[in-house]
């Protein structure tokens, strides 16, 4: 499909393709500056949409060699279960990702990343690291997390601690909500709400609190020395 036709196709179908419009903007940039190497990272679901295949076709029309695959981050030494589609394209010749460096037998688990940090409680901040700060928990949520085993979830609780939605058949699918992580496994996918207990399996493996900002950053492979600037 010619580039102009591709643009027209997407704008004609904005209601269903709206969230992929950044792919279109990226294609505009590629057409304009013709970089030698390009890379794209996104959720694997993007591969189900026609726009993705049309994007690849257009890159090839622009004389790029293209490869793409779904990457499971623990296979590349990241202590986090996170799958992403990675696309590489080159004008120099065939291109592909390096092979994985880790297998399940030697995944980097959170014990090697988080153990050794100062212990703090819910609502507390570390005296030596302001990013090692934990969100407050209500008395009810403190009771809940104390009943959760490492690697466990709300299913560990007595019925009186469970939310009514979890007692319904439809609630069974959300097994990781209000969960604790496990020392001997990679972390779950880190989201923007990882510091909030109740939004996923973001409970500390043994301390009664959710992850701190510092812990989330370490799981994202930021070094311990990394400093975040609050305001410019």
UniProtKB/TrEMBL annotation:
Enzyme Commission (EC) number: 2.1.1.37
Gene3D superfamilies, A to Z: DNA Methylase, subunit A, domain 2 (3.90.120.10), Vaccinia Virus protein VP39 (3.40.50.150)
Gene Ontology MF term list: DNA (cytosine-5-)-methyltransferase activity; DNA binding
Keyword Amino-acid biosynthesis: no
Family matches, as Pfam families: DNA_methylase
Membrane-traversing stretches: none
GO biological process: DNA restriction-modification system; methylation; negative regulation of gene expression via chromosomal CpG island methylation
Keyword Protein biosynthesis: no
Xref: PROSITE patterns: SAM_MT_C5
Keywords assigned by UniProt, alphabetized: Methyltransferase, Restriction system, S-adenosyl-L-methionine, Transferase
UniProt-listed PANTHER family: CYTOSINE-SPECIFIC METHYLTRANSFERASE, DNA (CYTOSINE-5)-METHYLTRANSFERASE 1
Protein family: Belongs to the class I-like SAM-binding methyltransferase superfamily. C5-methyltransferase family.
Name of protein: DNA (cytosine-5-)-methyltransferase
Species the sequence originates in: SAR324 cluster bacterium
